[in-house]
Amino acid sequence: MRTLRSFLGAVALASLALTQFACTGEGTRGGFSETPDGGDTCAAASDNDAVRLALAPACQGCHTNGNKPFFSSLAAFESGLVYNEKYVKRGDPENSLLVQMLKGAAPGSYPQMPPGQPYDELVASGRVTMTIAQVEAWIRDLPAPPEALETPSPEEFRVRRLSAEEMVVSLMDQLGLTLEDFVSTSNPDWRNRAYVVNWNKFFVWPGDWSPGISGEYVSDSRTGERFEALGGGNSLLYRKKDVSFGPSAAQALVQMSQAWCGRAVDKANNKAVLRYVVLADTSTKNPDAVQKNLRYLYLRMLGQPATDAEAQALYEQVYLPLEAQSTRLGWIGVCSALIRHPLWITY
């Protein structure tokens, strides 16, 4: 971390890395194949990996993490799906659950995968390029698994972007905010009133969480649109999660961080952001308190202490220029810059 511009540059680099991760998964074993100069490419590492990459646009939105992370890596794809007879019966595509789900004819609670739009329509639209017939041919000719099938290693370091749900819930907690800071539930008649009061509150809320709370709850459609921009899914509209970190997510996070940090700074008796200072404290009147609060915020938001160089850069290149306008703006800038830091965005 060097400057405010460095923060944005780091976010862009994180976005690129996360987008590449979504394309290929993990290292050479996860789907990268090495080039002669030692670099990496998105080319498939094997026939099974080619299938994984071909199916990924339709499947990875729901199956990159969770209890069925089949598309998080080649090892997970092979051990969890390809050589799991529950889903793939080698040489027998007609009786393979994977094929049945793609056709929308599987038994049980999930007859169709992915849910919502039939797989054939995804092929027709160009979203995926592998047809069901090609999946069947792959299963028909699938070789026997290796004697020692590789399984994902819990010791290996993995990085992923925070999900939209994690961003909303964790940010509310870190900034000392609650639902009441965005919507009014104190009125006795709140369940029958529109209580997304104004745009400046920048309310972000999953569409799946809305129904049942109030008849007017979704009167401001922007709340769900912002959540989806962060990569959130919406099962009611058949929208999948987006595991990449593209321009829409970056733009939504920038606006969300500034608006929510402003609400946290303005909230009375909120020690989540202004723990060791008040807005009357400046870098000249109370420099020690300002430095202490800056280091506290860094630790609270990023989960690790700031080095002297990092603290000094944040102070000189983010806080001081904004403090010249107001201490309120200075702390909003520091808070929102930390939220956009790759250490906050990733997990």
Write the layout of secondary structure elements.
Layout: H1 4-24, H2 27-30, E1 33-34, E2 40-41, H3 47-59, H4 74-82, H5 97-103, H6 119-125, H7 132-140, H8 164-174, H9 222-229, H10 247-266, H11 287-302, H12 308-323, H13 327-339, H14 342-345
Antiparallel strand pairs: 1-2
Helix pairs in contact: 9-10, 10-13, 11-13, 12-13
Q: What structural keywords apply?
A:
elongated; two-stranded antiparallel ribbon; 2 strands; 46% helix; 347 residues; Cytochrome c domain-containing protein; signal; mainly alpha; disordered N terminus
Written description of the protein model:
This is Cytochrome c domain-containing protein. Keywords: Signal. The chain has 14 helices and two strands, in the order ααββαααααααααααα. It has 347 residues and is an all-alpha fold. Strands 1-2 form a two-stranded antiparallel sheet. A hairpin with a 5-residue loop joins strand 1 and strand 2. The longest helix has 21 residues. The two termini are 18 Å apart.
Tally of individual helices: 14
Indicate the low-confidence ranges by residue numbers: 1-40, 195-199, 211-218
Instruction: Give helix and strand order, one letter per element, not per position.
Output: HHEEHHHHHHHHHHHH
The level of helicity is 40-55%
State the total count of DSSP E strands: 2
Largest beta sheet: what is the strand line-up? 1-2
- Terminal residue distance: 18 Å
Largest sheet: 2 strands, antiparallel
Protein name: Cytochrome c domain-containing protein
Keywords: Signal
Quick rundown:
Residues 1-22 form the signal peptide. The protein is mainly alpha-helical and 347 residues long. It folds into 2 domains: 27-140, no CATH class; 164-345, no CATH class.
